[in-house]
Design a protein that fits this description.
Elements lengths: L2 E3 L5 H9 L9 H11 L2 E6 L11 E8 L3 E6 L13 H16 L5 E4 L12 E12 L4 H6 L3 H13 L3 E5 L2 H17 L7 H11 L3 E8 L2 E11 L2 E9 L8 H15 L4 E8 L3 H8 L4 E11 L9 H13 L2 H11 L5
Parallel strand pairs: 4-5, 10-11
Antiparallel strand pairs: 1-2, 2-3, 3-4, 5-12, 6-11, 6-12, 7-8, 8-9, 9-10
Amino acid sequence: MVHIIDPIRDPRWAELVDRHPASSVFHSKPWLEAIQRTYGYTPVVYTTSAPSTPLSNGVVFCQIKSWLTGRRMVSVPFSDHCDPLFDGPVAAWVIAGELKRAVDSGKWQYVELRPMSNQVDLNGAVKRLVGSLHTLDLRPGLAELSRGFHKDCVTRKIRRAEREGLVYESGTSNRLLNAFYRLMIQTRRKHQLPPQPIEWFRNMAACMGERMQIRVVFKGGREIASIVTLRHKDGIVYKYGCSDTQSQNLGGTPLLFWRTIEEAKLAGLTSMDFGRSDSDNHGLIAFKDRWGAKSSELTYLRWSQRLASAVPTRRSSRAVKKLFAMMPDALLAATGRILYRHVG
């Protein structure tokens, strides 16, 4: 029998996340709380464990009910990966069957899993290759790690940043958050997309505490590059990054990653998750490769009522992107606040 629980209110979920080897920051209660506060989604967990027993398995979702994009469950929105926390094939088979029935009955347009590891066929779920995941093993010493970096694209840029006297800071203060978000608007505009709402980052900081770090480098008191990292167990996750296009030659972003690696080593962490890269984002994939990070494929699974909706034409996509590129900062940020609620 499948039971549905609230992972924010039920303490058994946090206990399972703490002890399950496949759990990530995207399973954690703070991440789910930040999503709920920002976007209003309802987090749920499907499990075969009875209410009066400890959780031995669970698959976490957020229920999204949008008048614009429909009703669906995603495990979980805005995550790069989120493995089902199974304890064996029986639970996997039973829970998958329940999810498929929920879609077949018309309750949801689709249900999507975003596993990091390869999953066996789950009751008719369609697999979709979405990109790659890069992970850096932090167990070797700093000297050995640095020997694996690309000399021109990483090592020399770090040295350039140090010669330039760039100032590095980390934390979750409003000053750092505002510096990060100014760069985020600039970077998203470059990609002709609206930025995530600033409330999302504020809620992450409030819910995750010191497990979230906003890392910024400054030149002459002006922010030139920033990344956001998340910590879970013995690993650190790179989640968001942005920079000032005109200052990229100063090496701000490589310096941020190097300081993150140094601090992670000092804290005894053993891995760094560089995050998902879309298959067609060759520049981002090359950047991560140059740090010596190992790449693996990311394949999502979906049960759907019908085939995916028609993809917008290239002409319409180009027109929308041009509109984003021309918007004033305030309007672009407001557009992000409206749209991201519908695209999780």
